């Protein structure tokens, strides 16, 4: 986001235009879907701990809600821009549509840096955000969630403010709440497990046997750890993981050819997902500097750290053995690298399909909250498996039928579903 020349919204619109051309979308629907349906920009005055008043800028963008209430996180970030929020809201529309959830796409944000704010100040920002938009969000309109630098505590403050203003209990207003306070069991595991449910199905499609497969993973945070857990439970082996080192300001890969031990590595990982390299060495891991996770001799790559990781510069270091790339992170592959993967015939499960387990479980949380009746974890995970599996096959079947790259097929399904909902409602 520091790069001023990069505009995420322009990129999201370009991606949309490409697919709109591919499917010959009519002009009115294009005009409708290229821009958000609604957006709110507002000021949040906060009395700071030192007695002064500071005014923070807040946003909520509802890109589209033809298929159901808008859904998407709220970010607290010092470099937040409304264009970033617009892009993310649009991507949420495609993500909920490809997962076939009865939801639309939204995103919110506040320009602020939580590192320099006390807990009380953050509470005031959270409550102030709700005071500005509570009439335009809610369980039947727009359902927020945690995102960058916001967590379950922020969600609870926001819920409390919403319920104070509206005079009732509406836990379905917001997701990402703690279990016991309206949260769903299984949410912690959902994105990583969901990723591997799509990997399992892709292996059936590609005639690969998971017991014979070896994977390398970028990242060791929430998504990566639960992906590794499920992948190994299903019989696969992970030989390499990587993480960011705060002290050295660089990344390292941790390799053990006979398979990494998830519990052992968890024991030497900080709360930001950083693995202690000295302790890893003592445990018999090879510690490799930089992005060497990408060049391992493996069948499967799981980028689960952050965006812009598989690029024109390193894509040719990917081994010929790699048949499958499943994008746990958002936007890990640049368009240039994507073209190379497509040409090489690598099967890519695109991010907004592969990591849709998180929003799917948030949807389950919302359903449970609206009913005020909570499901056991097994039931949540079984429903998650069902949703991810059917989303995977609807994209794969279309890709097969029309000889499309998986990313294009996923976009086509998502955009066609949203366009159809707009048409059916008589909007276009
Ligand atoms: P996290 O903060 O828990 O973990 C991030 C991990 O990436 C950490 O282990 C960190 O050390 C590592 N990392 C950071 N920079 C790195 C680098 N240059 N090289 C190697 N490792 C690096 O985050 P998370 O929740 O696991 O999310 C990971 C990605 O998945 C993000 O792109 C996020 O947007 C996406 N995602 C997350 C969820 C979710 O439910 N958590 C849902 C959908 C998408």
Write up what this structure looks like:
The chain has helices at residues 8-22, 27-33, 82-98, 119-133, 152-166, 187-205, 222-233, 262-266, 277-282, 335-344, 351-354, 357-371, 377-401, 406-424, and strands spanning 38-47, 53-64, 70-77, 105-111, 142-146, 214-218, 237-245, 250-255, 286-289, 300-303, 324-326, 347-349. It has 2 domains: 8-171, Leucine Dehydrogenase, chain A, domain 1 (Rossmann fold), CATH 3.40.50; 188-345, Rossmann fold (3-Layer(aba) Sandwich), CATH 3.40.50. Helix 10 (335-344) links the parallel strand 11 and strand 12. The protein is of the alpha/beta class. Helices cover 43% and strands 18% of the residues. It starts with 7 loop residues before the first helix and ends with a helix. A 7-stranded mixed beta sheet has the order 9-8-7-6-10-11-12. A 5-stranded mixed beta sheet has the order 1-2-4-3-5, sandwiched between helices. The chain contains 14 helices and 12 strands. The mean pLDDT is 96. It is globular and about 55 Å long. The structure holds nicotinamide-adenine-dinucleotide. Nicotinamide-adenine-dinucleotide (NAD) binds next to helix 7 and strand 7. Nicotinamide-adenine-dinucleotide is lined by residues 191, 218-224, 242-244, 251, 273-274, 304-306, 328-330, 355, 358.
């Amino acid at each position: 986001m520091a790069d001023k020349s990069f505009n995420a919204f322009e990129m999201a619109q370009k991606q949309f235009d490409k697919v709109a051309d591919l499917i010959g979308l009519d002009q009115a629907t294009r005009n409708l879907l290229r821009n958000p349906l609604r957006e709110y920009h507002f000021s949040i005055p906060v009395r700071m701990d030192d007695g002064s008043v500071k005014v923070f800028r807040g946003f909520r963008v509802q890109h589209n809600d033809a298929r159901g209430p808008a859904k998407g996180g709220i970010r607290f970030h010092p470099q937040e821009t409304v264009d970033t929020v617009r892009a993310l809201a649009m991507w949420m529309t495609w993500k909920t549509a490809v997962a076939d959830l009865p939801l639309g796409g939204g995103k919110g944000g506040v320009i602020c840096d939580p590192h320099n704010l006390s807990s009380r100040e953050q509470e005031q920002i959270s409550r102030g955000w709700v005071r500005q938009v509570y009439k335009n969000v809610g369980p039947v309109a727009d359902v927020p969630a945690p995102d960058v630098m916001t967590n379950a505590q922020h969600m609870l403050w926001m819920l409390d403010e919403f319920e104070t203003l509206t005079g009732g209990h509406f836990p379905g207003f917001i997701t990402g709440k703690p279990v016991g306070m309206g949260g769903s069991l299984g949410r912690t595991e959902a994105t990583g497990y969901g990723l591997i449910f799509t990997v399992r199905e892709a292996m059936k499609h590609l005639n690969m046997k998971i017991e014979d497969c070896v994977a390398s993973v970028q990242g060791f945070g929430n998504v990566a750890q639960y992906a590794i857990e499920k992948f190994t439970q299903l019989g696969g082996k992970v030989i390499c993981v990587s993480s960011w080192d705060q002290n050295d300001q660089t990344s390292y890969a941790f390799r053990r050819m006979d398979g990494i031990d998830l519990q052992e590595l968890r024991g030497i990982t900080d709360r930001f997902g950083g693995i202690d390299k000295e302790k890893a060495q003592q445990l018999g891991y090879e510690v490799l500097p930089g992005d060497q996770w990408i060049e391992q001799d493996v069948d499967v790559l799981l980028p689960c750290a952050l965006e812009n990781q598989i690029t024109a510069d390193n894509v040719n270091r990917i081994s010929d053995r790699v048949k499958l790339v499943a994008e746990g992170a958002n936007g890990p592959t640049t368009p240039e690298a994507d073209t190379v993967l497509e040409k090489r015939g690598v099967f890519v499960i695109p991010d907004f399909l592969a990591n849709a387990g998180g929003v799917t479980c948030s949807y389950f949380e919302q359903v449970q909250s609206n009913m005020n009746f909570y499901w056991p974890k097994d039931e949540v995970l079984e429903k998650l498996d069902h949703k991810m599996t059917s989303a995977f096959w609807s994209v794969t079947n279309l890709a097969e039928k029309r000889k499309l790259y998986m990313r294009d097929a996923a976009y086509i399904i998502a955009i066609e579903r949203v366009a159809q909902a707009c048409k059916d409602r008589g909007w276009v």
